TrEMBL record:
It comes from Bifidobacterium bifidum ATCC 29521 = JCM 1255 = DSM 20456. This is Type I restriction-modification system specificity protein. Pfam families: Methylase_S. Keywords: DNA-binding, Restriction system. Residues 15-195, 214-389 form the Type I restriction modification DNA specificity domain.
Amino acid sequence: MSMSRIDDLIAEYCPDGVKHQTLGEIGEFIRGNGIQKRDFRDSGFGCIHYGQIYTYYGLFADHTKSFIDPNLAEKRKKAYKGDLVIATTSENEEDVCKACAWLGEEPIAISGDAYIFRHHQNPKYISYCFQSELFQSQKKKYITGTKVLRVNGDAMAKIHVPVPPLPVQEEIVRILDSFSSLEAELEAELEAELEARRKQYAYYRNELLTFERVVTVCIQDICIRICSGGTPSSKRHDYYDGNVPWLRTQDIDFNVINQTSATISDEGLRNSAAQWIPANCVIVAMYGATAAKVAVNSIPLTTNQACCNLQIDETKADVRYVFHWLSNEYEHLKALGEGSQSNINAKKVKSYPISLPPLEEQRRIVSILDRFDKLTNDLSSGLPAEIEARRKQYEYYRDRLLSFDELAV
Protein backbone atom coordinates (compact mmCIF):
# COMPACT_ATOMS: atom_id res chain seq x y z
CA MET A 1 0.00 0.00 0.00
CA SER A 2 1.51 3.34 -1.06
CA MET A 3 1.71 5.96 1.67
CA SER A 4 3.06 8.74 -0.61
CA ARG A 5 -0.26 10.57 -0.99
CA ILE A 6 -0.80 10.53 2.79
CA ASP A 7 2.75 11.77 3.34
CA ASP A 8 2.18 14.63 0.87
CA LEU A 9 -1.05 15.66 2.59
CA ILE A 10 0.55 15.53 6.04
CA ALA A 11 3.45 17.63 4.78
CA GLU A 12 0.96 20.15 3.37
CA TYR A 13 -1.60 20.32 6.19
CA CYS A 14 0.14 19.22 9.39
CA PRO A 15 3.94 19.15 8.97
CA ASP A 16 4.53 19.55 12.71
CA GLY A 17 2.36 16.59 13.68
CA VAL A 18 -1.29 15.73 14.23
CA LYS A 19 -3.25 16.91 17.23
CA HIS A 20 -4.66 14.18 19.45
CA GLN A 21 -7.96 15.12 21.08
CA THR A 22 -10.44 13.41 23.33
CA LEU A 23 -13.74 12.39 21.79
CA GLY A 24 -15.41 14.76 24.24
CA GLU A 25 -13.45 17.65 22.70
CA ILE A 26 -14.54 16.91 19.14
CA GLY A 27 -18.13 15.81 19.73
CA GLU A 28 -20.86 14.84 22.18
CA PHE A 29 -22.35 11.55 23.31
CA ILE A 30 -26.13 11.17 23.43
CA ARG A 31 -27.68 8.08 24.99
CA GLY A 32 -30.38 6.24 23.05
CA ASN A 33 -33.67 5.30 24.69
CA GLY A 34 -36.73 3.12 24.81
CA ILE A 35 -36.81 0.82 21.78
CA GLN A 36 -37.60 -2.86 22.35
CA LYS A 37 -37.51 -5.63 19.77
CA ARG A 38 -41.26 -6.03 20.22
CA ASP A 39 -41.63 -2.49 18.78
CA PHE A 40 -40.25 -3.54 15.38
CA ARG A 41 -42.49 -3.43 12.33
CA ASP A 42 -42.02 -4.00 8.59
CA SER A 43 -42.04 -0.31 7.70
CA GLY A 44 -42.18 3.09 9.30
CA PHE A 45 -39.41 5.11 10.98
CA GLY A 46 -35.94 3.56 10.68
CA CYS A 47 -34.27 2.43 13.90
CA ILE A 48 -31.20 0.60 15.19
CA HIS A 49 -31.36 -1.64 18.25
CA TYR A 50 -28.00 -1.94 20.03
CA GLY A 51 -27.92 -5.75 19.58
CA GLN A 52 -28.08 -5.37 15.80
CA ILE A 53 -24.79 -3.46 15.79
CA TYR A 54 -23.05 -6.73 16.69
CA THR A 55 -24.99 -9.01 14.40
CA TYR A 56 -26.06 -7.01 11.34
CA TYR A 57 -24.23 -3.72 10.81
CA GLY A 58 -20.70 -3.06 9.62
CA LEU A 59 -18.63 0.09 10.07
CA PHE A 60 -21.15 2.21 8.18
CA ALA A 61 -24.74 1.97 6.95
CA ASP A 62 -27.25 4.01 4.98
CA HIS A 63 -30.37 1.91 5.60
CA THR A 64 -31.82 0.17 8.63
CA LYS A 65 -32.88 -3.41 9.10
CA SER A 66 -35.79 -2.48 11.39
CA PHE A 67 -38.51 0.14 11.74
CA ILE A 68 -40.83 1.46 14.45
CA ASP A 69 -44.08 3.38 14.46
CA PRO A 70 -43.45 7.07 13.61
CA ASN A 71 -45.47 8.11 16.65
CA LEU A 72 -43.18 6.08 18.90
CA ALA A 73 -40.15 7.58 17.18
CA GLU A 74 -41.16 11.13 18.07
CA LYS A 75 -39.90 10.77 21.64
CA ARG A 76 -36.83 8.69 20.85
CA LYS A 77 -33.26 9.90 20.52
CA LYS A 78 -32.20 10.14 16.89
CA ALA A 79 -29.01 9.78 14.88
CA TYR A 80 -28.51 12.05 11.88
CA LYS A 81 -26.29 11.69 8.83
CA GLY A 82 -22.66 11.53 9.96
CA ASP A 83 -23.38 10.46 13.54
CA LEU A 84 -21.89 7.28 14.95
CA VAL A 85 -24.14 4.72 16.63
CA ILE A 86 -22.25 2.81 19.33
CA ALA A 87 -23.24 -0.35 21.19
CA THR A 88 -22.05 0.08 24.78
CA THR A 89 -23.24 -3.16 26.41
CA SER A 90 -22.03 -6.68 25.65
CA GLU A 91 -21.08 -9.98 27.25
CA ASN A 92 -17.59 -9.77 25.75
CA GLU A 93 -14.92 -7.09 25.73
CA GLU A 94 -14.40 -7.12 21.97
CA ASP A 95 -17.95 -6.02 21.13
CA VAL A 96 -18.20 -3.21 23.68
CA CYS A 97 -18.05 0.14 21.82
CA LYS A 98 -18.59 -1.40 18.38
CA ALA A 99 -19.54 1.55 16.22
CA CYS A 100 -21.43 2.12 12.98
CA ALA A 101 -21.43 5.45 11.11
CA TRP A 102 -24.91 6.41 9.94
CA LEU A 103 -24.70 7.69 6.33
CA GLY A 104 -28.40 7.68 5.45
CA GLU A 105 -30.17 10.91 4.52
CA GLU A 106 -33.02 10.43 7.00
CA PRO A 107 -32.71 10.44 10.82
CA ILE A 108 -33.12 7.15 12.67
CA ALA A 109 -34.16 6.24 16.22
CA ILE A 110 -31.63 4.62 18.55
CA SER A 111 -32.33 2.18 21.39
CA GLY A 112 -31.04 2.19 24.95
CA ASP A 113 -27.64 0.55 25.58
CA ALA A 114 -26.45 2.50 22.55
CA TYR A 115 -24.97 5.98 22.26
CA ILE A 116 -24.98 8.50 19.44
CA PHE A 117 -21.69 10.33 18.84
CA ARG A 118 -22.29 13.69 17.13
CA HIS A 119 -19.24 15.41 15.66
CA HIS A 120 -17.92 17.36 12.67
CA GLN A 121 -15.23 14.97 11.45
CA ASN A 122 -15.34 12.51 8.55
CA PRO A 123 -17.76 9.87 9.90
CA LYS A 124 -16.01 6.96 8.23
CA TYR A 125 -12.67 8.13 9.63
CA ILE A 126 -14.06 8.19 13.17
CA SER A 127 -15.66 4.77 12.67
CA TYR A 128 -12.28 3.38 11.59
CA CYS A 129 -10.72 5.03 14.67
CA PHE A 130 -13.12 3.07 16.90
CA GLN A 131 -11.66 -0.13 15.39
CA SER A 132 -8.05 0.86 15.95
CA GLU A 133 -5.67 -0.63 18.50
CA LEU A 134 -5.21 2.85 20.00
CA PHE A 135 -8.93 3.10 20.77
CA GLN A 136 -9.29 -0.51 21.91
CA SER A 137 -6.39 -0.25 24.35
CA GLN A 138 -7.90 2.85 25.94
CA LYS A 139 -11.47 1.59 26.24
CA LYS A 140 -10.40 -1.39 28.38
CA LYS A 141 -9.78 0.75 31.45
CA TYR A 142 -13.31 2.19 31.25
CA ILE A 143 -15.21 -1.11 31.03
CA THR A 144 -17.35 -1.89 34.07
CA GLY A 145 -19.27 -5.03 35.07
CA THR A 146 -18.36 -8.70 35.14
CA LYS A 147 -20.92 -10.81 33.26
CA VAL A 148 -22.45 -7.83 31.41
CA LEU A 149 -19.80 -5.32 30.34
CA ARG A 150 -20.52 -1.61 29.83
CA VAL A 151 -18.88 1.66 28.86
CA ASN A 152 -20.81 4.91 29.28
CA GLY A 153 -20.66 8.16 27.35
CA ASP A 154 -18.67 10.05 30.01
CA ALA A 155 -15.98 7.37 29.83
CA MET A 156 -15.84 7.32 26.02
CA ALA A 157 -15.49 11.11 26.04
CA LYS A 158 -12.08 10.67 27.73
CA ILE A 159 -10.65 8.46 24.94
CA HIS A 160 -8.32 10.36 22.64
CA VAL A 161 -7.86 9.88 18.88
CA PRO A 162 -5.66 11.57 16.26
CA VAL A 163 -7.58 14.34 14.50
CA PRO A 164 -5.79 15.29 11.26
CA PRO A 165 -7.32 17.88 8.90
CA LEU A 166 -10.31 16.70 6.89
CA PRO A 167 -8.38 16.22 3.58
CA VAL A 168 -6.06 13.78 5.39
CA GLN A 169 -9.05 11.99 6.95
CA GLU A 170 -10.69 11.69 3.54
CA GLU A 171 -7.59 10.15 1.95
CA ILE A 172 -7.24 7.65 4.79
CA VAL A 173 -10.89 6.69 4.32
CA ARG A 174 -10.39 6.28 0.58
CA ILE A 175 -7.44 3.93 1.11
CA LEU A 176 -9.13 1.92 3.87
CA ASP A 177 -12.37 1.63 1.89
CA SER A 178 -10.41 0.30 -1.09
CA PHE A 179 -8.39 -2.09 1.05
CA SER A 180 -11.49 -3.26 2.93
CA SER A 181 -13.30 -3.97 -0.34
CA LEU A 182 -10.39 -6.02 -1.69
CA GLU A 183 -9.94 -7.81 1.63
CA ALA A 184 -13.68 -8.61 1.75
CA GLU A 185 -13.60 -10.08 -1.78
CA LEU A 186 -10.60 -12.26 -0.99
CA GLU A 187 -12.10 -13.34 2.32
CA ALA A 188 -15.40 -14.21 0.61
CA GLU A 189 -13.50 -16.43 -1.85
CA LEU A 190 -11.68 -18.15 0.99
CA GLU A 191 -14.89 -18.57 2.99
CA ALA A 192 -16.56 -20.17 -0.04
CA GLU A 193 -13.62 -22.56 -0.42
CA LEU A 194 -13.70 -23.33 3.30
CA GLU A 195 -17.44 -24.02 3.16
CA ALA A 196 -16.85 -26.42 0.26
CA ARG A 197 -14.17 -28.19 2.32
CA ARG A 198 -16.53 -28.44 5.28
CA LYS A 199 -19.26 -29.97 3.14
CA GLN A 200 -16.74 -32.44 1.76
CA TYR A 201 -15.63 -33.27 5.30
CA ALA A 202 -19.25 -33.77 6.43
CA TYR A 203 -19.89 -36.08 3.48
CA TYR A 204 -16.87 -38.30 4.18
CA ARG A 205 -17.57 -38.28 7.92
CA ASN A 206 -21.08 -39.52 7.28
CA GLU A 207 -19.74 -42.20 4.93
CA LEU A 208 -17.18 -43.39 7.48
CA LEU A 209 -19.80 -43.49 10.25
CA THR A 210 -22.41 -45.45 8.28
CA PHE A 211 -22.28 -49.18 9.03
CA GLU A 212 -24.23 -52.25 7.92
CA ARG A 213 -23.43 -54.85 10.58
CA VAL A 214 -22.27 -53.13 13.75
CA VAL A 215 -23.53 -53.29 17.32
CA THR A 216 -25.62 -50.29 18.33
CA VAL A 217 -25.78 -49.26 22.00
CA CYS A 218 -26.91 -46.22 23.97
CA ILE A 219 -24.45 -43.50 24.94
CA GLN A 220 -24.90 -44.40 28.62
CA ASP A 221 -23.65 -47.94 27.88
CA ILE A 222 -20.16 -46.66 27.00
CA CYS A 223 -19.77 -44.21 29.90
CA ILE A 224 -18.12 -44.58 33.30
CA ARG A 225 -19.87 -41.45 34.55
CA ILE A 226 -22.42 -38.96 33.26
CA CYS A 227 -23.10 -35.68 35.05
CA SER A 228 -24.15 -32.12 34.47
CA GLY A 229 -22.61 -29.06 36.08
CA GLY A 230 -23.93 -26.13 38.05
CA THR A 231 -23.88 -22.39 38.51
CA PRO A 232 -23.27 -20.62 41.83
CA SER A 233 -26.67 -19.78 43.28
CA SER A 234 -25.64 -16.28 44.29
CA LYS A 235 -24.73 -13.38 42.01
CA ARG A 236 -21.94 -12.44 44.38
CA HIS A 237 -18.94 -11.10 42.50
CA ASP A 238 -16.47 -13.16 44.55
CA TYR A 239 -18.03 -16.39 43.23
CA TYR A 240 -16.64 -15.54 39.79
CA ASP A 241 -13.21 -14.77 38.32
CA GLY A 242 -11.50 -17.42 40.42
CA ASN A 243 -9.06 -20.19 39.52
CA VAL A 244 -11.54 -22.93 38.58
CA PRO A 245 -12.13 -23.25 34.79
CA TRP A 246 -15.90 -23.06 34.29
CA LEU A 247 -17.33 -24.07 30.92
CA ARG A 248 -20.50 -22.49 29.56
CA THR A 249 -22.46 -23.69 26.56
CA GLN A 250 -21.36 -20.76 24.38
CA ASP A 251 -17.82 -22.18 24.48
CA ILE A 252 -18.96 -25.46 22.88
CA ASP A 253 -18.67 -25.56 19.10
CA PHE A 254 -17.39 -28.95 17.87
CA ASN A 255 -14.00 -28.06 19.34
CA VAL A 256 -11.31 -28.98 21.85
CA ILE A 257 -11.58 -27.01 25.09
CA ASN A 258 -8.12 -26.04 26.33
CA GLN A 259 -9.29 -22.96 28.21
CA THR A 260 -12.62 -21.47 29.28
CA SER A 261 -13.99 -17.95 28.84
CA ALA A 262 -15.14 -17.90 32.47
CA THR A 263 -13.90 -19.08 35.85
CA ILE A 264 -15.38 -19.44 39.32
CA SER A 265 -13.77 -19.47 42.73
CA ASP A 266 -13.35 -22.49 44.99
CA GLU A 267 -16.17 -21.07 47.10
CA GLY A 268 -18.31 -20.68 44.00
CA LEU A 269 -17.61 -24.32 43.11
CA ARG A 270 -18.73 -25.43 46.56
CA ASN A 271 -21.81 -23.23 46.32
CA SER A 272 -22.89 -24.79 43.01
CA ALA A 273 -23.77 -28.34 42.06
CA ALA A 274 -20.83 -28.36 39.67
CA GLN A 275 -18.26 -31.15 39.85
CA TRP A 276 -14.71 -31.44 38.58
CA ILE A 277 -14.65 -33.15 35.18
CA PRO A 278 -11.41 -34.93 34.23
CA ALA A 279 -9.73 -34.19 30.92
CA ASN A 280 -10.77 -36.16 27.85
CA CYS A 281 -14.53 -36.17 28.32
CA VAL A 282 -17.17 -35.54 25.67
CA ILE A 283 -19.30 -32.53 26.63
CA VAL A 284 -22.73 -31.97 25.08
CA ALA A 285 -24.49 -28.59 25.25
CA MET A 286 -28.15 -29.02 26.16
CA TYR A 287 -29.72 -25.54 26.18
CA GLY A 288 -30.11 -22.55 23.91
CA ALA A 289 -28.46 -21.78 20.58
CA THR A 290 -25.69 -24.34 21.07
CA ALA A 291 -27.96 -27.25 22.08
CA ALA A 292 -26.60 -30.58 20.75
CA LYS A 293 -23.18 -29.16 19.89
CA VAL A 294 -20.26 -31.11 21.36
CA ALA A 295 -16.68 -30.62 22.51
CA VAL A 296 -13.84 -32.54 24.13
CA ASN A 297 -11.94 -31.02 27.07
CA SER A 298 -8.17 -31.26 27.16
CA ILE A 299 -8.01 -29.85 30.71
CA PRO A 300 -9.86 -30.71 33.95
CA LEU A 301 -12.72 -28.27 34.43
CA THR A 302 -16.24 -27.79 35.70
CA THR A 303 -19.31 -26.78 33.71
CA ASN A 304 -22.62 -25.05 34.15
CA GLN A 305 -25.86 -27.01 34.41
CA ALA A 306 -26.53 -26.71 30.66
CA CYS A 307 -23.75 -29.20 29.84
CA CYS A 308 -23.98 -33.00 29.84
CA ASN A 309 -20.54 -34.41 30.61
CA LEU A 310 -19.67 -37.90 29.38
CA GLN A 311 -16.68 -39.71 30.86
CA ILE A 312 -16.12 -42.48 28.32
CA ASP A 313 -15.09 -46.03 29.21
CA GLU A 314 -12.07 -46.27 26.94
CA THR A 315 -12.19 -50.07 26.94
CA LYS A 316 -15.44 -49.72 24.99
CA ALA A 317 -15.11 -46.56 22.92
CA ASP A 318 -12.54 -44.07 21.76
CA VAL A 319 -13.31 -40.58 23.08
CA ARG A 320 -12.65 -38.94 19.73
CA TYR A 321 -14.85 -41.52 18.01
CA VAL A 322 -17.74 -40.57 20.32
CA PHE A 323 -17.05 -36.90 19.61
CA HIS A 324 -17.13 -37.44 15.85
CA TRP A 325 -20.24 -39.63 16.10
CA LEU A 326 -22.21 -37.02 18.05
CA SER A 327 -20.93 -34.24 15.78
CA ASN A 328 -22.27 -36.17 12.80
CA GLU A 329 -25.59 -36.72 14.61
CA TYR A 330 -25.95 -33.02 15.55
CA GLU A 331 -29.07 -32.31 13.50
CA HIS A 332 -30.82 -35.49 14.69
CA LEU A 333 -29.99 -34.89 18.36
CA LYS A 334 -30.97 -31.23 18.11
CA ALA A 335 -34.33 -32.23 16.59
CA LEU A 336 -35.17 -33.96 19.89
CA GLY A 337 -35.22 -30.58 21.63
CA GLU A 338 -38.31 -29.18 23.28
CA GLY A 339 -39.66 -25.76 24.18
CA SER A 340 -39.07 -22.39 22.55
CA GLN A 341 -35.28 -22.87 22.64
CA SER A 342 -35.35 -26.55 21.58
CA ASN A 343 -33.50 -27.63 24.71
CA ILE A 344 -32.48 -31.25 25.13
CA ASN A 345 -31.86 -33.00 28.45
CA ALA A 346 -29.42 -35.52 29.90
CA LYS A 347 -31.92 -38.35 29.53
CA LYS A 348 -32.04 -37.85 25.76
CA VAL A 349 -28.25 -37.72 25.55
CA LYS A 350 -27.89 -40.91 27.63
CA SER A 351 -30.36 -42.86 25.52
CA TYR A 352 -29.07 -41.63 22.16
CA PRO A 353 -27.86 -44.56 19.98
CA ILE A 354 -24.28 -44.97 18.82
CA SER A 355 -22.91 -47.56 16.39
CA LEU A 356 -19.88 -49.23 17.90
CA PRO A 357 -17.36 -51.00 15.66
CA PRO A 358 -14.28 -52.61 17.28
CA LEU A 359 -11.83 -50.20 18.96
CA GLU A 360 -9.22 -50.70 16.25
CA GLU A 361 -11.73 -49.62 13.60
CA GLN A 362 -12.85 -46.69 15.73
CA ARG A 363 -9.26 -45.47 15.94
CA ARG A 364 -8.76 -45.83 12.19
CA ILE A 365 -11.86 -43.70 11.59
CA VAL A 366 -10.69 -41.15 14.18
CA SER A 367 -7.30 -40.88 12.48
CA ILE A 368 -8.94 -40.00 9.15
CA LEU A 369 -11.52 -37.61 10.60
CA ASP A 370 -9.03 -35.80 12.82
CA ARG A 371 -6.94 -34.98 9.75
CA PHE A 372 -10.02 -33.60 7.97
CA ASP A 373 -11.00 -31.71 11.11
CA LYS A 374 -7.58 -30.07 11.41
CA LEU A 375 -7.59 -28.99 7.78
CA THR A 376 -11.01 -27.35 7.97
CA ASN A 377 -11.15 -25.99 11.51
CA ASP A 378 -7.71 -25.49 13.03
CA LEU A 379 -6.61 -21.85 12.84
CA SER A 380 -2.98 -22.97 12.79
CA SER A 381 -3.33 -24.63 9.38
CA GLY A 382 -5.26 -24.62 6.14
CA LEU A 383 -7.76 -22.06 4.89
CA PRO A 384 -8.87 -20.68 8.28
CA ALA A 385 -5.28 -19.58 8.90
CA GLU A 386 -5.22 -17.79 5.55
CA ILE A 387 -8.48 -16.00 6.37
CA GLU A 388 -7.05 -14.98 9.75
CA ALA A 389 -3.85 -13.76 8.05
CA ARG A 390 -5.91 -11.54 5.72
CA ARG A 391 -7.67 -10.00 8.71
CA LYS A 392 -4.40 -9.38 10.52
CA GLN A 393 -2.94 -7.77 7.42
CA TYR A 394 -5.92 -5.43 7.17
CA GLU A 395 -5.67 -4.54 10.88
CA TYR A 396 -1.94 -3.81 10.48
CA TYR A 397 -2.47 -1.35 7.62
CA ARG A 398 -5.48 0.26 9.31
CA ASP A 399 -3.52 0.91 12.50
CA ARG A 400 -0.54 2.16 10.50
CA LEU A 401 -2.73 4.63 8.62
CA LEU A 402 -4.23 5.84 11.89
CA SER A 403 -0.87 6.44 13.56
CA PHE A 404 0.65 9.92 13.45
CA ASP A 405 3.39 11.88 15.07
CA GLU A 406 1.62 13.85 17.77
CA LEU A 407 1.65 17.61 17.61
CA ALA A 408 3.81 19.02 20.39
CA VAL A 409 1.82 21.27 22.71
